[in-house]
Design goal:
The structure is a single chain. With 198 residues, the protein is of the alpha+beta class. It has a single domain, classed as Distorted Sandwich (Deoxyuridine 5'-Triphosphate Nucleotidohydrolase, Chain A), CATH 2.70.40.10. The chain has 4 helices and 14 strands. The strands form 3 sheets. Strands 2, 3, 4, 6, 8, 9, 10, 12 and 14 form a 9-stranded antiparallel β-sheet that branches. The longest helix is centred in the last third of the chain and has 14 residues. The radius of gyration is 19 Å and the shape is globular. The termini are far apart.
Length: 198
Amino acid sequence: MFLSDVDIKKAVQNGDIVIKDFDEKRLQPASYDICLGNKFLITSSHESLVIDPVNKIYAKHVERIVPDGEAYYLHPGVTVLGTSKDYFGSDKYLIQLSGKSSLARIGLVVHNTAGLINPGHFLNITFELCNFNKVPIVLRPGMPIGQLLFSMLSNKVQKDYKKTGRYQDRDWDHFADPKELEGKIEKTKKAKPGKAKK
C-alpha cells in the first residue's frame, strides 16, 4: 500500500519519514517531488577502454560541480550520475524512486534499474541520468527531477540497510566493493558480546 499525500505529511511530521528540507508544495497525491543537486560524475571515455563489472574494471570518472543558476548539457546517448538536493530516508517505509512523465517524454531517464531505497537507508540519492533523445537536454540544479513513493511493509524488517547496505554512508562512491560489506558485517558479529554462561 502506497502512502497518500496526507499520510506522507503525517509521517514527516512524526519522524517516520525524513526529508530535508521538506516543502509541502512538492507533495503530489501519492508521491513527493525531489530536485536535482549540483554534483555530476562523468565517464572519461578517452581513459576507459572497457567496463568489466565481473572483474571489477570500471570506467574512470570526473566529478563536476554545477553551481545553482548554471546548467549541465546531457548529450544524446550519454549516461552520467547525478545526485539529489534532497536528503531523505525512513526506518519504517520502503521508498521507490520514479521519474516524472514530463521529463520521460523528452527522453530523460532518471534511473536505469536502481530505484529502490530500503528501510534504514538515509541518503542524497544517486541518479543514473541518460538522454534517449536526439538533441541535448539541459539539466539545471534545483529542477524537479523525480518523485518518491512510500510503501507500507507487511512487518518490521529483521535487517535494515544500516546493517546490510553496500552504499551506507557512501552513496556518492561510484562502485562499492561487496567484500567491504562482508568485512563490516563480520566485524559487527565479533563486536557483539556473547551470552553469559549459567
